[in-house]
Specification:
292 residues, mainly alpha, Serine Threonine Protein Phosphatase 5, Tetratricopeptide repeat, 3 domains
Length: 292
Amino acid sequence: MSEPDELYTLRAQYWLGHYQMALDEAKSIMRRPMSPELKQEREEFVTRCQIAMKDYDKVIAGDSPGLNALALHSQYATLASTGDASQTQTVIQQLQSMLGDGASPSVQLTAAHVFLQAGMKKEALQCVHQGSTLEHISLCVQIYILLDRLDLAQKTLQLLRKTDEDSMLTQLASVHVALATGSSVAGEAVHTLNQISEQYGPSPMLLNLSACAHMQAGNYSEAEGKLTQAREEFGANDADTLVNSIVVSQYQHKPIGDLAAELKQHYPDHFLSIGLDTVGGAFDREAIKYRV
């Protein structure tokens, strides 16, 4: 499965988390001759970048099922940020209605991403398990890891390598599998991420993956440096950066109060925010028993 040259850089930049660079690339190739299918894919990647950058107001429904599904993804993300659970369920139902026979791979992929955000792992897997595109296969790897099926993730990674060993998605999937495997192969993940960053430059996503790889290897100061770079160089305050910063601080016996407060303020529904509140509440209730 070969990737058309016209969109190679656009795809790579998006997959690596360089969303603004991907938008710039999409703009630069706008007038380049290409097939209607590639033009449509270009528009979809533009929309996906806007969603990734949380520019939801820029996302509008288009003239294709793929763009309409992405508009629903944007709507879901907007509603989820406000805690409107009833309306998010409506969006999920709309996406499910688009998944009948003949659903395009882009609709299946978008539905899978939304289902994952909603915690519907098995439903997400059903959307992409046939592996009709590289992105489908790559997402299968991540879902199997979430389902604690490392054996299936490794098997699917081999399929990805047979399909396109040099693809950026294959390299990133190998990193995810290495991180899930444990400290024994953490060095391989660090090496792969260093090579990618040297070639394409760092991004918050790559820096977070690098931090996780260094933590797996026990190099906590290196991990902290990557996360500090993400926050200072890119202004990253996403949930992954905050959570990884909390974890690496814990490993180094550093205070986490400010980081935890920031996480709970901006991401109250994150599982770690909920967990911290639960543990904190339990501690306070027990402490009352021992007041003098």
